[in-house]
Structure formats: C-alpha cells, structure tokens
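Much of the work behind modern protein science is quiet bookkeeping, done one molecule at a time. Below is the pair of lines this work produces for a single protein:

***
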Amino acid sequence: MTSSAWVGERVRLRAKEPEDWEAFHAFDEDSDAVRSGWRLTPPASVARAKKTAIEHAEEELDLDEFSLVIATRTDNAPVGSINTHAIDRVHGTFSYGIAVGTPHHRKGYASEAIVLTLRYMFFERRFQKAEAWVYGYNDASLALHRRLGFVEEGRRRRSHYADGRYHDEVLFGMTIEEYTERYA
C-alpha cells in the first residue's frame, strides 16, 4: 500500500472540484466564521458559486502558491480549505490561510491540514519559515496556532475592520527547525 503526503489520520488535502461548490456555498452562510477568515461579502448566487468552483478547479497548478480543499479522509467530503500565499523565495518564507466550516470545528481538521501543508512546504519546496496572520478576536485560531507551536512574533494594531470595529492582527511564525523538533 502506498502512502500520500497529502493524507493524515482525519483529513486529505486535495484539489478543488466543481462539485465542491455546495459545501463552500453553505459555509459562507455563517457570517461570523467568514469574518474570522477574511472579510464578509454579499451573498453569492448558486450560479456564481458553481462558476467559481469550476474556475478554481481549472486553475493552473502552482507548486508554491496553491489552494486546497480540506476533506475528510473517510468520505472525501469538503470541510474547509487551506491556501499558501505571500511566497518569498529569496528569504524562504510563506504565509498560509485556513478556513474550516462551522459544522466541522474542533475535530482536529485544521491542525492536521496545517501540519501536512507545512511538511510539504518545508521538506518538498525548501522553505524555512511559515507565517500566519490571525485576527485578534479569533480566539479559536489564536489558541490553535499556540497549541501547534507557533511563536507570536508581533501585532499590527487596529489594522483590520470587521463588525463595526477595528481589530488587531497577530503574526505567528514557525521555522523549519521548530517544526522538525515538534513533528518530524
């Protein structure tokens, strides 16, 4: 039996498929969860959700900057997504973002998806540091990153506006050495 670098105990990271539109469209109904991930936007139509899913499924593959579905290992159902961005090949750093649908919170999906993504970026793509920005009001994500061993490196005060107020953004970082000590 072969093993995949993209499969953990609970989740598999996979490419987006057109049929994923329904799950992600449903996740977007929870305004608080959407706000915690990035920013709240007006509702999308079913037609727009389907079109966007098709466009994402057909995007060209980039080895360093990508977006993947977090799916359950048992039935391949979408529970969220993880993406890499802010790629800096000169300094060997990257950032990532993660979102898990509200019905799937607190099941270990996010932590496993992050660990799998970091392993790929560190050991296959030769990056040396991962960074994540977390909104100061997102207590669950702040706790998750601390639990995973990320180091709080800084705070941008009042740099994010949501729900009628300005909020801080907290920068977390993890080096390849910190990852290796904990997970390899």
Summary: The chain has a mean pLDDT of 95. Residues 11-183 form a domain with the Aminopeptidase fold (CATH 3.40.630.30). The CA atoms of residues 34 and 175 lie 28 Å apart.
